[in-house]
Design brief:
The structure holds 3 protein chains of 3 kinds. By secondary structure, chain A is mainly alpha-helical. Chain A is built from 11 helices and 2 strands, in the order ααααββααααααα. Chain B is built from 15 helices and 6 strands. In chain B, helix 2 packs parallel to helix 8 and helix 3 packs parallel to helix 5. Chain B is globular. The chains are: A mainly alpha, B mainly alpha, C alpha/beta.
Chain lengths: 303, 371, 240
């Protein structure tokens, strides 16, 4: 029972990180109908920026360093969108997939060159010593995990409020719904796209900052996280922010429980080497049975 | 001024003979000019070109964003390796087995996967390609044992020149040269096969689906069947490439067939030229050899030196990829198609014979592109 | 001071290599309802899209709205010049609520109170919209969506309203009511309207002037009443 509870807690806290990155993916998808395969690398770069401001070059208070990293990566995201993505017609998928993969490669290589591939320890935004936890039953809810869950909640709240209670948010939802009509009512679509990418990169960086203490910061840190986030976003529905949040949590739970219990069985112990298998299977299943995800809007395919 | 040649004339046939003859000559002589280890690299370029040929069938000609070719290459390589290593098969015999096995996997994966559309398909297949190498490390069903798990498998029998080959001049210490002809032969078969396929009725059905799915369906093309079989064929060719890679190095490991390989294939596809037969060849040459050159480059940029060694060769690749998408979306094959008519123009024969005036043909027959 | 709201001179438009509109001239007086009639493929929608400089069409020529040249204006800017365009298929925001749709119509306006007053006004004109104000626009019936689309367009208090085939896909009774409302709106607000229609009958009833478009060129024009009585028109467009 305790083990189950622990696995649930761990699954949810990992899942919250996936949810944060999933929300970033969904923001870009809503604005542009594109999947940004480079989202993880851009987030990782933001994580390194945090490292620079918090440890390497300066020793700013952690929240300040995180904030600066988020702002800088937002700027990077806007630049990338303007220069590399906007020239292309979003209906033609191949060029954009290639561009985002190219960005993936470049950002990864630049990070690997500036900072090497050695994993680094990074301070957590929350107190995470051995005794910083709350006991629930026999399980431990570390402050660190709690902090991550709270961050997800706050982030979701912020996004929800902006999207639903502000004029900019209304414009964003309009662009997501019907880009041509958005132009006709006078919305500056370009600005909205930039806003979408900026927000996505900022949140992606937040995700990286939250996960870095656990996985150790390195240029290849976010690639698996992206797979989990993709699976979560797809599960929730690529155009649903709430769906992404739930999807990320589901993926985290799924991994924790499935891998946890499965690998306890001797025959399956080697599955420990395939943590990407459950999310991949989930992704394939969702995309096959219900591509619009659990909470997304159905696309009507006219013949 | 361009040379104008009548299509189907004796002149045309001579030109074609000269061109392909010249190619064949170069192909035969090349391994003897190059040092043996370079031939090994050349072999890699050949099997990558083959893999990209397969990928092109789906992405280029059918217009489907299925990006998991690296997984099929791995399957082909492991089938070949297991059959030789554990069951003592002859390498030649493993080729059809590897292709068939990959074909099966392709069809099995294709049936569900091809219901997924557009970008979602890309997501699904990319994650499959990313996750696949790890699957080979599973211990259940003896998978890890067969694949060598994390360390890979050194096949106990390698292709080396046998008696009669040695008398021709192949030395046992230069195995890559010998393997070159094995690999080249298979590649030529694959390229000719695909070229003929695309000219045939089923081949044109594939392209019809890309250009206008509804129109194709209404014209009687069975969409699902064509898509799935095309996908299976692409996988089979990928499996062939995998077997070729096993022949080349005598060693298979999951680390050779990762997401990085998949991106290399995509880069090769785009640089070479999507939906062309010659494209994969150009692309493979660039991906294999430019990478080597990039590794030895070092560009001083004022305060920062762009050093090709290390991660920056990867950055250069990313730049090439983005650059091609921006500036040369039709790839090298596109450039060739544009400049070739300036040298030689193939002019179609008007009905009823006789010669025509100077009306240039849009796609000269001389090159290897199926449009 | 010209009494023209819309002046179009030598409009040309092409999709890729195909010429769709060749040298078209058009005039709409202020406060007038003008109709462009034509069969499918005549180029009616293209004409409207060219006026708004929408993408896909390579257009050239002069377009002047209330004395202001908008020939080169970005489609995202035309609403600022007083042009509201209701595209073919209504162009609503299907996932957003009726209320959100209306607010988006008034996006460029800054007067909160004015916007709310106008929203209420359109609820008065179209009570069914008021009843469904929180519903997603995509869940409304065709006729309701058209009412929403027009209301949304009018929220920006435009000088010129462009309507692309408003009757498309709607039942005859709905169309009748719709056109009656168009006439009312025109009379009460003085909004100039340019309506593109296949359904000639009702359109000609509410219009002051009309043009007939055939394969990209104007073949007939004049007061709506005259065209209505014209036997050729009757045969071609007022038949079935």
């Amino acid at each position: 029972m305790d083990l189950l509870l622990q696995r649930i807690i761990d699954g949810l806290s990992n899942g919250a990180i996936y949810a944060v990155v999933a929300i970033a993916l969904v923001l870009i998808f809503k604005a542009t109908t594109l999947v940004n395969f480079a989202q993880g690398e851009l987030a990782m770069f933001g994580g390194f920026l945090f490292y620079v401001f918090a440890v390497q070059a300066y020793e700013l208070p952690l929240l300040v360093a995180a904030f600066i990293a988020m702002v800088l990566s937002a700027l990077l995201g806007v630049t990338v969108e303007r220069v590399l993505v906007r020239p292309f017609d979003p209906q033609d998928h191949l060029p954009v997939v290639l561009i985002t993969l190219g960005i993936f490669y470049i950002v990864n290589a630049v990070a690997g060159d500036i900072w090497n591939y050695e994993p680094r320890a990074v301070p957590s935004l929350f107190p995470n010593n051995f005794d910083d936890f709350i006991s629930i039953g026999g399980a431990r809810l570390f402050y660190d995990s709690l902090g991550i869950l709270v961050s997800l909640g706050l982030m979701y709240l912020v996004v929800y409020l902006i999207l639903n209670k502000t004029k900019m948010g209304l414009a964003f939802r309009a662009v997501s719904s019907n880009t041509e009509s958005s132009r006709l009512v006078g919305i500056r679509v370009g600005r909205i796209l930039s806003f979408g990418w900026a927000a996505a990169c900022a949140f992606g960086t937040l995700g990286a900052v939250l996960v870095a203490p656990r996985l150790l910061l390195s240029p290849n840190m976010m690639a698996p996280v992206l797979v989990y986030a993709l699976a979560g976003a797809a599960f929730g529905g690529l155009d649903s922010i709430g769906g992404a949040a739930i999807g990320g949590l589901v993926v985290g739970l799924l991994n924790s429980l499935v891998l946890g219990y499965l690998t306890d069985i001797d025959a399956f112990s080697s599955f420990r080497a395939t943590p990407l298998l459950p999310p991949m299977l989930l992704l394939l299943t969702v995309l096959w049975f219900k591509p619009s995800g659990m909470f997304g809007t159905k696309q009507i395919e006219r013949v | 001024m361009a040379l104008v040649v009548q299509q189907g004339s004796a002149q045309h046939r001579t030109l074609k003979l000269a061109f392909f003859g010249g190619l064949a000559l170069i192909a035969i002589v090349l391994p003897f000019i190059l040092p043996d280890f370079q031939v090994g690299r050349l072999n890699r370029a050949i099997w990558i070109a083959t893999a990209v040929l397969g990928l092109n069938l789906v992405v280029g000609y059918a217009g489907l964003l299925a990006l998991c070719q690296s997984a099929f290459i791995a399957i082909g390589a492991f089938i070949c390796a297991t059959l030789v290593h554990e069951h003592g098969w002859d390498y030649w015999m493993t080729i059809p087995a590897a292709m068939f096995g990959s074909f099966l996997f392709g069809v099995l994966l294709g049936v569900p996967a091809l219901r997924i559309k557009g970008l979602y398909l890309a997501m699904a297949t990319i994650s499959f390609a990313a996750a696949f190498p790890a699957l080979t490390k599973l211990e259940m069903g003896g998978i890890a044992r067969r694949t060598g798990g994390a360390n890979g498998l050194k096949i106990n029998e390698e292709i080396v020149p046998t008696g009669w080959a040695e008398s021709l001049g192949f030395a046992a210490e230069e195995p890559f040269r010998y393997r070159y002809f094995f690999i080249l032969f298979l590649a030529v078969l694959a390229f000719v096969g695909v070229h003929n396929l695309l000219k045939s009725r089923p081949g044109r059905a594939i392209v019809a689906i890309r250009d206008n799915e509804t129109g194709a369906a209404v014209s009687g093309v069975n969409l699902r069947e064509v898509k799935v079989i095309n996908f299976g064929l692409s996988a089979a060719i990928g499996g062939l490439a995998g077997a070729m890679s096993a022949v080349n190095t005598g060693f298979v490991a999951e680390t050779s067939f990762t997401f990085v390989l998949m991106v290399d294939l995509l880069v090769a596809l785009v640089i070479g030229g999507v939906a062309t037969i010659q494209g994969p060849i150009w692309g493979a040459i660039v991906v294999v050899f430019v990478r080597e050159i990039a590794k030895n480059m070092s560009i001083p940029l004022g305060f920062y030196t762009l050093d090709g060694n290390g991660p920056l060769s990867q950055a250069i690749f990313g730049l090439i990829l983005i650059g091609v998408v921006f500036f040369a979306p039709r790839g090298i094959a596109g450039l060739v198609q544009k400049t070739l008519p300036k040298i030689v123009q193939i002019v179609p024969t008007p009905p009823g014979g006789g010669t025509t005036k100077q009306t240039p043909s849009a796609t000269p027959d001389l090159e290897l592109s199926a449009q | 001071m010209s009494d023209l709201m819309l002046e179009v001179r030598n409009l040309q438009a092409s999709y890729g290599q195909v010429d769709v509109i060749r040298g078209l001239d058009l005039e709409v007086k202020k406060g007038e309802v003008c109709v462009i009639l034509g069969a499918n493929g005549a180029g009616k929608t293209t004409t409207l899209r060219s006026i708004s400089n929408m993408p896909v069409v390579n257009s050239s020529g002069t377009v002047i709205v209330d004395g202001v040249d908008i020939s080169k204006t970005d489609p995202g800017e035309i609403v600022n010049k007083g042009v509201a365009h209701v595209p073919q298929g209504r162009g609503t925001f299907p996932e957003l609520s009726v209320l959100d749709n209306l607010h988006l119509g008034g996006y460029i306006r800054k007067d909160r109170k004015g916007i709310e007053d106008d929203v209420q006004r359109w609820f008065d004109y179209f009570p069914v919209l008021g009843e469904r104000r929180e519903q997603a626009a995509g869940s409304l019936s065709g006729g309701e969506q058209q009412m929403l689309a027009v209301s949304r367009a009018l929220m920006s208090r435009p000088k010129l309203l462009l309507l692309d085939e408003p009757s498309l896909g709607l039942a005859p009774i709905i169309i009748e009511n719709l056109f009656k409302t168009f006439a009312e709106i025109n009379q009460e607000n003085g909004t100039t309207m340019l309506v593109v229609e296949q359904n000639a009958n009702l359109a000609l009833n509410i219009a002051e002037s009309a043009y007939v478009l055939e394969t990209g060129a104007i073949t007939m024009s004049g007061p709506a009443a005259d065209l209505k009585d014209n036997p050729a028109i009757q045969e071609a467009y007022l038949g079935a």
